[in-house]
């Protein structure tokens, strides 16, 4: 079974631009969570989607948004990029089974550099 | 917000030695997860724990869910060079219910193994 895939793997943008990152979960997984990883703040939760609905959101500004499609694929968007948005953006999917409800499986991430 | 304190921050050991790291929280967690992250990759799930006192092994790795539900530890026996990486604890706070896709992460333990 294929793992979580994320595209693109690397991205370079300039301040003020916007960016869209894509995530395809493991087949059968309907929950997708997004995280931002930086050396200073570590791994921080952005939001989670299930059945095309955002069920949970972390403490990030409204410039960070996401959506989920009917096939469970998800995208996140960051508008008006700032230098501090440079980070590794990780997507994780979960089966939400009764025996492994909170287990999340991560993709390789998208490395975003804002110049 | 919720924080997990993971220690030690880094470890330098000789191949063949055993390793122990732990994670503590000021509040109750209902799930503890341990991940390993290699450079440029996403975290890989090693062990998941769901019950207080639970002790679970995965090859040379053993993890335990503390009986107070506020801590967890990970042991690696007979370390080998490929154990090098960053180890993260993660969990879902609360006495029950769902976190809707939000994992709280520790700061990570950087493990270096000398051949």
Topology:
The complex is a heterodimer of chains A (115) and B (115).
Chain A: E1 5-7, E2 10-13, E3 19-24, E4 31-38, E5 42-50, E6 53-57, E7 64-68, E8 74-78, E9 87-94, E10 105-106, E11 110-114
Parallel strand pairs in A: 2-11
Antiparallel strand pairs in A: 1-3, 3-8, 4-5, 4-9, 5-6, 7-8, 9-10, 9-11
Chain B: E1 4-7, E2 10-14, E3 19-25, E4 29-37, E5 44-49, E6 55-58, E7 61-65, E8 71-76, E9 85-93, E10 104-105, E11 109-114
Parallel strand pairs in B: 2-11
Antiparallel strand pairs in B: 1-3, 3-8, 4-5, 4-9, 6-7, 7-8, 9-10, 9-11
Task: Note the main attributes of this structure.
heterodimer; A: 115 residues; mainly beta; seven-stranded mixed sheet; four-stranded antiparallel sheet; B: 115 residues; six-stranded mixed sheet; five-stranded antiparallel sheet; 0% helix
> Low-confidence segments of chain B, ≥5 residues, pLDDT <50?
none
Largest sheet geometry of chain B: 6 strands, mixed
Return the string of H and E elements of chain B: EEEEEEEEEEE
Helix content of chain B: under 10%
The coarse silhouette of chain A is globular
Provide mean pLDDT of chain B, rounded. 93
* Number of helices, counting only DSSP H or I runs of 4 residues or more of chain A: 0
Overall mean pLDDT of chain A: 95
Structural class of chain A: mainly beta
Please give the alpha-carbon distance between the first and last residues of chain B: 40 Å
Tally of individual helices of chain B: 0
Global outline of chain B: globular
Q: What is the chains' assembly state?
A: heterodimer
């Amino acid at each position: 079974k294929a793992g979580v895939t994320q595209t693109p793997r690397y991205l370079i943008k300039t301040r003020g631009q916007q960016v869209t990152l894509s995530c395809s979960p493991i087949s059968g997984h309907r929950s997708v969570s997004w995280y931002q990883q930086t050396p200073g703040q570590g791994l921080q939760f952005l939001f989670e989607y299930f059945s095309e609905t955002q069920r949970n959101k972390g403490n990030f500004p409204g410039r960070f948004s996401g959506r989920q499609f009917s096939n469970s694929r998800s995208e996140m968007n960051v508008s008006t990029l700032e230098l501090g948005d440079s980070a590794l953006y990780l997507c994780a999917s979960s089966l939400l089974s009764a025996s492994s409800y909170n287990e999340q499986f991560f993709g390789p991430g998208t490395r975003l550099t804002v110049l | 917000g919720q924080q997990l304190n993971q220690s030690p921050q880094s470890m330098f050991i000789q191949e063949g030695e055993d390793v122990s790291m732990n994670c503590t929280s000021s509040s109750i967690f209902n799930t503890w997860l341990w991940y390993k992250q290699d450079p440029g990759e996403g975290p890989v799930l090693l062990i998941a724990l769901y019950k207080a006192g639970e002790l679970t092994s995965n090859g040379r790795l053993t993890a335990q869910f503390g009986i107070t539900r506020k801590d967890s530890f990970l042991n690696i026996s007979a370390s080998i060079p490929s154990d090098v990486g960053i180890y993260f604890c993660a969990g879902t706070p609360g006495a029950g219910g769902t976190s809707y896709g939000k994992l709280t992460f520790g700061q990570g333990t950087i493990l270096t193994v000398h051949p």
